[in-house]
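Hello Y.,

Per our agreement to keep a running log of every chain we model this quarter, I'm adding this entry. I've kept the format consistent with earlier entries: sequence first, then predicted structure.
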Amino acid sequence: MTARITRRQALGAGIGFAALGIAGAKAETPALPKAPVTLNVVDVAGNLALTQKAIQNYAKAKPELVSKISFTKAPAPDLPGKLKAQQDAGRVDIDLVLTGTDALSAGLDQKIWVPLLPDLASALPKLDDVLLAPAARMQGLANGAGVVVSYYPSGPLLEYAPERVSQPPNTAEELLAYAKVNPNRFIYARPANSGPGRTFLMGLPYILGDKDPKDPVNGWEKTWAYLKELGEAIEYYPTGTGATMKEFGEGSRDMTVSTTGWDINPRVLGVVPKTAAISTLKGFHWVTDAHYACIPKGLAPEKIAVLLDLISFMLKPEQQAYTYDEGYFYPGPAVKNVTLSMAPEESQAAIAEFGRPEYEKLIADIPTELPLDPAKMVVAFNMWDKQIGAAKTK
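Predicted structure for the entry above:
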């Protein structure tokens, strides 16, 4: 990972955006620069595991546009506020953000993203034509402020150690009973900064038969009550999924919530034993997930032109094949006609060894649901932080 390079940004927070036209109006695509630019890419979703190779390939293919790319990782909850402060100060040093629905949603709430669609659609591929159907549905959640660059069905799944859990829970009631009989052996991370955590949060209303799975304020009565009761048997909530998998892998926890990618990849890496198993709870629906490329307001128009060209490059099938990675976001590709056989040999080998045959059937048979829309997702995260995690998140 290269070190972050802070660059001087001469334009104020709104000037670059204003140069592209007013939101809602069809903007003219900005012109590409006459000299190559440097790009600072910030990843708040773990997306670089899937896309860094494609981004580096772009720099190699277009040296006339890009002289250097630096990569930085940051926590999703911290980024929107940081970007807003930079924009207010007129000194934006972040050019591209790779994010899940969490920071995407918070950023929409704070109005920090350049509107890409429909404003700048002419500079991008026709997304309805190239994206997989469920990825196209996820694209709708971006409200035009980002472009889907990777997709997976996600979860929620339960992952457990079969040598310590002989009979995994098959219903929400059985999970609660297990947690009470085995205090501190079940763990999940803070949803605002964890893909499995938020998938579990948004998936429970379907599992529990709540009144309105899309309304965390008025439709999740069973979910909030369940999470409070479950929390009595949970020692603490880590701030990220990596910590949960480390504790699960080391044996200090016996069960956690997971997704297809968080099941496969930590076993590939040896963080979690290969023998770990998965199960699902009765009534579960996939709550799909995606990663997005978002451009902050406050950049020079010619830099935005390069970023649009980069995003288009990232959606080419041969670049999308890298998103299979080592199962981190399994399957991974957001666009059509990208098969595992197109992926690097190491990706094919990892998925052959650590993938699960049952995923094909689960993906084919189980209904898929969109996550909450961005505004409601922010509300749900805040409610969880206050009602569930306040005293136990660390």
